[in-house]
Amino acid sequence: MNRFSISISIVLALSANTIFAKSTAPYLDDTLPIEQRVDDALSRMTTAEKIAIIHAQSKFGSPGVKRLGIPEVWTDDGPHGVRPEVLWDEWDQAGWTNDSCVAFPALTALAATWNPEMSRIYGVAVGEEARYRNKQMLLGPGINIYRTPLNGRNFEYMGEDPYLASKMVVPYIQGLQSNGVSACVKHYCLNNQEVNRHTTNVLIDDRTLYEIYLPAFKAAVQEGGAWAIMGAYNLYKDQHLCHNQYTLNDILKKEWGFDGVVVSDWGGTHDTDQAIANGLDMEFGSWTDGLANGASNAYDNYYLAQPYFQKIVNGEVGTDELDDKARRVLRLIMRTAMDRNRPWGSMLSPEHYDAARQIGNEGIVLLKNDGAVLPISGAPKRILVVGENAVKMMTVGGGSSSLKVQREVSPLDGLRASAPAGCQVDWVRGYVGDVGGEYNGVTTGQDLRESRSEQELVDEAVAEAKNADYVIFVGGLNKAAHQDCEDSDRAGLELPYAQDALIEALAKANPNLVVVNISGNAVAMPWVNKVPAIVQAWFLGSEAGNSIADVLYGAVNPSGKLPFTFPQRLSDVGAHSFGEKAYPGIPRNDGSNILDEEYTEGIYVGYRWADKQKLKPLFPFGHGLSYTTFAYGKITADKNEMGADDQITFTIPVTNTGSRPGSEIVQLYITDKKCSVDRPVKELKGFAKVSLAPGETKDVTITIGKDELSYFDAAAHQWVAEPGEFIAHAAASATDIKSSATFKLK
Ligand code: BGC
């Protein structure tokens, strides 16, 4: 090439660049700030195009702007893995062969790790799966507060405490969104039961709303930076929570400055005017034409579709709200699909299975271990596993979080795979629970039908239990209706399917009995004093059996703690102490289908109620044992008095006094000694998980500020920390306070 042709090609290259740059509209130029791109895109769109992007065009997708090359938005459930593809307008499977996923442990298990790092790992991994599947939004995580153990969806949430849920939700969102996949935090808010979920109007005072039910959502938005949030099905102040002036406009958007998208829950939109005015940005899953399950492909009839367009054309409403909604949706698209720098994601990787197993290992809670029955030791020759949940697949069912997994290791398979050398692991059924194995067309392929009687199954289990070195009962709840499942609540606190009688019989037959409870909810345990070892194992996803085996055989020292209280009985729960008006609500009898439900217990949810009523829980919030033991030294503070803008740091020395490495979750609770309003006996305001070698001591430090001392003054509508004396408690659980320190707020 001579000098002349070189300079010609430079000129050509430069002019091609200029031409290209000129033809690149600002909204396509990802070197520009997002707000500038959003403004530019919006200015190019017609009213019809704006209307189009704020409602669905399929079960889980909404259109982009075809003319402008702005991509569609694809959402999917969430929160425990990426749901398989469904047909365009049906809940049934699309029948794809490339949409199996890794199932991660349920969010209750994640919360039980009390380890924000696990939460980050979880968010990154599930986000990579969602990204690989080309989703812009994952419908999760869920953070509704555990108000009653009957709520069928507690397994999808993070427990009873607003502080714990806040700390655990933030890294999940950050990890997920680091993939360029939006979180959709749900179900905002006051969605604390499944029974009558579309028709319950919650009556609650402002203080309870702000202190108990909002903090995790606020943290998700302000600290996690969530790009989307999902409105709840039920009502507050007589407005559905998917279009609610108070919670969406006043609190979420004005008070908290949320700049993301409010997504309706599927079928949670009810009225065009309210949807326009009261903060909803994207409508999904609506019923149409008054038909029970919707006419096919009737997306044009959605409340925010033609009916909205007509109102604009008729001059009944202006376009300010529309511009705001469209702007939010465009912002979402710029943050996800139109972010050219977002990673590519990955699916079904060994790293994702490892993450699932690690989270499961850290989330399992050792509730009881008398006589150190666990970990299994002493070269056993035969272990008998009893119970349906030892073999039943748990990733299928339970509602929208149901998954199609590439694989799921059952407890029995896990226990067999890593059994001690020379040990035979046998299984008998013991009881019949749910023999179903299908959800929206995904089938487990398991045939769990049983022809023997209940008594025959018990007799067989007892006879076999007598000839085993260990008996491991694996039972609990499952993902069928009225268990841990969307759209219905449990009938009671008791274990179903006559498991109590079976456990009693097994306890008589063999002293080395371990009960493994699989559930996302507390269950009653009338046999608690007859069983030496009890393990809370949650729904652990793809690696369930391996995580359980790791803990039972001692490869992993358990370190999880309960994210909610196990009450002795249902009447020990605040929500169940005031009759039907507090749960499940009272029908209005005014011709509407609305029920009113008063959160009469107020701020006294979970351990706050147990403390106030001086009730001894079956197992308290924050409880969990280890195969080693820990000794707590005296808690000290770096000062005795703190100013309003100050912080105070507490130091708690913890020593591993046993012979195995282990981790302890140190909890910090605060008591306000005297206050002008009634306050809980104590509230969780800090925690830290510390790993210790045998004999090792570490100082755990926890710092708090004024926020951790404040209550919500409803009249003044602000958080208030009243000067005076406070007590900081170092504790191993809500009922195991190790030492306390008094300090003053000036
Ligand atoms: C659930 C949501 C879910 C949506 C889409 C609704 O029934 O309440 O949590 O994300 O369906 O499947």
Describe this structure as you would to a colleague.
- The chain has 746 residues and is α/β, with parallel strands linked by helices.
- The protein folds into three domains: 10-335, TIM Barrel, CATH 3.20.20; 364-552, Glycoside hydrolase family 3 C-terminal domain (Rossmann fold); 628-745, Sandwich (Immunoglobulin-like), CATH 2.60.40.
- Helix content is 26%, strand content 20%.
- The strands form eight sheets. The protein has a six-stranded mixed beta sheet, sandwiched between helices.
- Strand 14 and strand 15 form a beta hairpin.
- It is globular and about 80 Å long.
- The model is unreliable at 1-22 (pLDDT under 50).
- Bound molecules: beta-D-glucopyranose.
- Residues 77-78, 139, 186, 265-266, 400 line the site of beta-D-glucopyranose (BGC).
- Beta-D-glucopyranose is lined by residues 77-78, 139, 186, 265-266, 400.
Question: TL;DR of this structure?
Answer:
With 746 residues, the chain is α/β, with parallel strands linked by helices. 26% of the residues lie in helices and 20% in strands.
Q: Residue share in helices?
A: 25-40%
The top-level CATH class of the largest domain is Alpha Beta
The percentage of residues in β strands lies in 15-25%
Task: Trace the largest sheet across and list its strands.
Answer: 11-18-17-16-12-13
Bound molecules: beta-D-glucopyranose
How many helices does DSSP assign?
A: 18
Q: What summary fits the major beta sheet?
A: 6 strands, mixed
